[in-house]
Write a structure and sequence with these properties.
6-stranded parallel β-sheet, Rossmann fold, alpha/beta, 25 helices, 784 residues, 24 strands
Length: 784
């Protein structure tokens, strides 16, 4: 067999493969004609806009080629994640050569015409962009915003025991914070039930215009660093690199198999540290300035070949150095030596079933009717409102989802499972951790389904890798700290948006978030823990893929979670507090509300068929304040007719001009909010969120928005509402202002306004004195 021959034949073939993919990659940057240099290169053959990056490309080509060797020799399923997404010409060249690109896009089946089409269409309008993207077979990470490759790779490997995910980490990307924490992912990887990540650190010593940190470190220092992380580092040096890489990948593969077969207490997985020149095989210098093996080769090595005859000559010599005429046969197919290096069709990297989402499995969801919380309880002859922790009630449902989906569902949480009242989860699973732990640790298991690590970046990367390979997850976190990953979610949103238009891309499970420990109840914490900005950030993505839910009680939280977990190709964000709050809706009503995104709660207002004022709310504490304001008016001004509307999905209003249509139709909105009455809207987050959503609606000028105004500290729950001018008292005062035109109610309005102001003064004085909310708030039902 070919791969049983000596290294000489193998290396000879690899060098030819390497020349061919390097030629195709370099040509993509420059050529719009004369693609195979069949005539002398002229300036009219050069693209007018020369775009892309070269420096990392040859190293990526070299890695891809050597992964093919492992795939072919061992029939090993390997998925590739390229951290340096700007090395996209490399990926296109290899996918083209192996036939994966032509499989999905027949116009790129290998041949003379297609190779020219590929070269011309790189970074060309209507062609390929400059970075990896969803239209590319085998890709689940764009690699534009650096730092997420490694955690995404581990997410893909979880629960895929036969898969190796090769992850290229550039030495520039290695400087990012998310990458630094993601190295610890091996401590969460179960050798028996999970796949393996093979990190390949590509050390070419330079970034855009300066050296990399790893490029300044000695082998001894790098060895200590990665051994400290818990890896077995294996170096590939530039000298004899072809032989070294074959030996190194072989060692790494055998070590992987050994660990999988007999896992030690602390598995020391291999990491390959590959050193190569930046811009390898490119022009060495131009006009006495070094290009190859310097930062100058990061982007376009020769920037003006169209206008500079010397650069045009250098470009021609560079491309000619690959001798492409020796690498293609008369039919413009790769020669046999090169073809023998390419794996069989289904084993090719571009055909990987996990990356192309051919193995997606829906969740087996329990019926939420089994978890319904009754909204009222009887005490003698009186009905009393039931209070409950919404997240605690939800945890029973999540517990059983884990039980029913033992290898298809994970929960990500940065050390907050217990803090967020999710204790029932530990009845069926534990926190995942592989290494030995201190003796006082609780609920730890190598088989746990709860992934806890104090790095939101790593958790998000794990979840994205897990979901993009067809599995399901829920990220549960403190609301304030989700801004840490806002940009990651934005990048994911871009990936989803592009995927929508690619016919061969199948639907994916949704990316699901539960944000709790919200700004309004940071009892043990303060201002730093008060930030609803993640909601605003995702709304700014201007996409139809985002759903944002504010369930006002436990049953609506159940309904929203069910809807989120059943959805596909969405980013679902659910915001719910963990403290005990009043419960309002039956499950039937909760589902009705969730289906529309909003609901008129009939009976909550006073004579609400013909209201003078409509109160609306999004958020559990906003709901509490709005309903309390209605109760105050009912007690003090029973002549005023009020209505309450709960908006549990703010994205039901629509997002942007044409991006996402309003799910609640015009007639429903008119029936719900009336044709002409003022609306006092109490909102969980920044008021600008709602203003932006309502902007295109004709009734927007009737809405008065109350919400978080970036004011807070460690204080009482009601004082947070007062500080942000959105308490029940402020809502009543605004209602009184809107009712001033009523001469009939003038005296009662003045009296009520005076009383509200007195309560605010009392609040300010007594709260500071006692550290508690005033009795009129703590025992509200006694007064109203």
């Amino acid at each position: 067999m070919f791969f049983q021959d000596n290294h000489r034949k193998l290396i000879s073939a690899q060098k030819k493969y390497f020349r061919l993919v390097n030629y195709i990659s370099a040509a993509q940057l420059y050529l719009k004609d004369n693609f195979l240099l069949e005539t002398q290169l002229k300036k009219e053959h050069i693209k007018d806009r020369i775009l892309g990056h070269w420096g990392t490309v040859p190293g990526l080509n070299f890695i891809y080629m050597n992964l093919n060797r492992l795939i072919k020799k061992y029939k090993q399923e390997i998925m590739l994640i390229n951290g340096p997404g700007h090395g996209y010409p490399s990926l296109l060249s290899n996918l083209y050569l192996e036939g994966s690109l032509g499989h999905f896009y027949p116009e790129y089946q290998v041949g003379k015409e297609s190779i020219g089409k590929l070269i011309k269409n790189f970074s060309w309008p209507g062609g390929f962009p400059s970075h990896a993207n969803p239209e590319t077979p085998g890709v689940i990470l764009e690699g534009g915003e650096l730092g997420y490759a490694l955690s995404t790779a581990f997410g893909a490997a979880f629960d895929n025991p036969n898969l190796i995910v090769a992850c290229v980490v550039g030495d520039g990307e290695a400087e990012t914070g998310p990458t630094a924490t993601a190295w610890h992912s091996t401590k969460f990887l179960n050798p028996k039930t999970d796949g393996v990540v093979l990190p390949i650190v590509h050390i070419n010593k330079y970034k855009i215009s300066g050296p990399t940190i790893y490029g300044t470190m000695s082998n001894e220092e790098l060895d200590h660093l990665f051994k400290g992380y818990g890896y077995t580092p294996i170096f590939v040096e530039e000298s004899g690199i072809f032989e070294n890489m074959i030996d190194t990948t072989e060692k790494a593969y055998q070590l992987i198999k050994e660990i999988k077969k007999s896992p030690p207490e602390k598995p020391k997985w291999p990491v390959i540290l590959m050193k190569s020149m930046k811009g390898w095989t490119g022009p060495h210098e131009s006009k006495g300035i070094i290009i190859e093996d310097s930062f100058r080769s990061h982007g376009i090595p020769l920037e003006k070949p169209k206008s500079d005859p010397l650069e045009l000559d250098l470009l021609e010599k560079w491309l000619e150095s690959y001798k492409i005429e020796e690498l293609l046969d008369k039919n413009f197919q790769p020669i046999k030596e090169i073809k023998k290096l390419i794996p069989k069709k289904d084993m090719r990297i571009g055909m990987n079933k996990h990356a192309n989402n051919l193995v997606s499995r829906p969740l087996n969801l329990p019926k939420i009717e089994n978890y319904e919380l009754r909204s009222r309880i009887k005490s003698g002859t009186n009905n009393k409102s039931l209070t409950a922790s919404s997240t605690a009630e939800l945890s029973k449902y999540l517990r059983d989802i884990i039980k029913e989906n033992p290898d298809n569902f994970r929960i990500m949480s940065p050390d907050e499972t217990e803090s967020n009242k999710l204790h029932p989860l530990f009845e069926v699973t534990k926190r995942r951790y592989i290494w030995p732990v201190p003796k006082e640790s609780e609920n730890i298991s190598p088989d746990g389904r709860i992934m806890e690590m104090l790095s939101e970046h790593t958790l998000e990367g794990w979840m994205q890798g897990y979901v993009l390979t067809g599995r399901n997850a829920l990220f549960i976190s403190y609301e304030a700290f989700m801004m840490i990953i806002a940009s990651m979610v934005d990048q994911y949103s871009k990936f989803l948006k592009q995927s929508k238009d690619i016919k061969w891309r199948r639907s994916l499970p949704s990316l699901n978030f539960l944000l709790t420990s919200t700004s309004w109840r940071q009892d043990h914490n303060g201002y730093s823990h008060q930030n609803p900005g993640f909601i605003s950030s995702t709304l700014n993505d201007y996409t139809e893929s985002t759903n944002i839910y504010f369930p006002p009680d436990a049953n609506t939280l159940l309904a929203a979670t069910e809807r989120a977990l059943q959805s596909e190709n969405k980013i679902n964000i659910i915001i719910a507090g963990k403290r005990h709050i009043p419960q309002h809706l039956s499950l039937k009503k909760a589902r009705e509300q969730t289906s529309h995104g909003l609901l008129w709660w009939k009976g909550k207002g006073t004579n609400d068929k013909d209201p003078d004022i409509v109160f609306a709310a999004s958020g559990d504490y906003s709901t509490l304040e709005s309903i309390s304001a209605i109760k105050i008016l009912k007690k003090l001004l029973p002549e005023v007719n009020t209505r309450f509307v709960s908006v549990s999905e703010i994205t039901s209003f629509g997002v942007g001009d044409n991006c996402r249509k309003c799910r609640a139709d015009k007639s429903l909105l008119t029936r719900t909010f009336t044709k002409d009455k003022p609306v006092l809207y109490s909102y969980h987050g920044y008021p600008e969120d709602i203003k932006s959503l309502l902007y295109n609606h004709e009734f927007a000028n009737r809405f008065h928005i109350f919400g978080y105004q970036e004011k807070g500290t460690t204080t009482t729950p009601f004082d947070m509402q007062v500080a942000n001018s959105c308490s029940r008292l402020h809502l009543v005062l605004k209602a009184l202002e809107l009712l001033r035109s009523s001469k009939k109610l003038k005296k009662k309005l003045e009296k009520t306004e005076s009383y509200m102001q007195e309560l605010l003064k009392k609040h300010h004085l007594e709260t500071k004195e006692t550290g508690m909310d005033i009795d009129e708030i703590r025992n509200f039902d006694k007064y109203y």
